[in-house]
């Protein structure tokens, strides 16, 4: 029987379960089976992993995992490309182009766009924090440095309008039936999870598609919400779904939990859901923040 006290319901979670903070709720649920959630999240976990792996820190962690791997243990290799390719995802080659990359280079904004044929989808994915990068920490600490330009600034002022232009251009030659079914997602890990949420709020109104779902992994509590013009963010958050997905014990989990106690997550427009996994053992809170580990474990769980 689940404990009567709401704050105690999630304590018994094991590796085959998730606990959920439903939209509009302050507390986590009793444990639920992991498989349905893993089936929803695995592709976006790998997409977030790809964006992170292109950093020096991501490459270093991947090499460490490969070195320490035990043959025959673990159903999924840490390389995200094979499962994404098998699922029909392909990365856009022409966007962001050299001009846009030059504009966002100084802020260290890292973004990729991936497209899937069936069901039709586009995912805009953002790279997370590189520990020794000053620009990333300036973005992470933007609550304490108001007015300073950073990655969130570039998402609103540069990336979102450029993406609107590219998607509107591509839509001119797209099959109307495919365009009507096309879903636009944003995703990312850590800092990238915060940027993914802000991107959803900041897509220009005249874009042919708007973000329907955000998948933010171990996300920063910083979302840049108030850096987006009120009329634009109000329009973009209508019907928007946001999943904040994280590993139990990761370094930002306590901060998000405290934030939820004092500021109840939105129930709708946008509907914000928290999903906590307990997928792998980590020796400290920083190690538990790994998107490489989390993506592999979520992928393995959806096959169980």
CATH fold name:
Rossmann fold
The total number of structural domains is 1
Mean pLDDT: 90
E-strand count: 9
Structure class: alpha/beta
Strand order of the largest sheet: 2-1-9-8-7-6-5-4-3
Query: Gyration radius, to the nearest Å?
Result: 19 Å
Examine the secondary-structure arrangement and name the CATH architecture: 3-Layer(aba) Sandwich
Helix share bin: 25-40%
| Helix/strand order, N-terminal first | EEHHHEHEEHHHEHEHEHEH
Distance between the termini: 25 Å
What's the story with the biggest beta sheet? Answer: 9 strands, mixed
What is the element layout, followed by pairings?
Elements: E1 17-21, E2 32-33, H1 35-53, H2 56-68, H3 81-86, E3 89-91, H4 98-104, E4 111-116, E5 121-126, H5 134-140, H6 151-171, H7 176-181, E6 183-189, H8 191-202, E7 211-217, H9 230-236, E8 241-247, H10 253-262, E9 271-277, H11 291-302
Parallel strand pairs: 5-6, 6-7, 7-8, 8-9
Antiparallel strand pairs: 1-2, 1-9, 3-4, 4-5
Helix pairs in contact: 1-11, 6-8
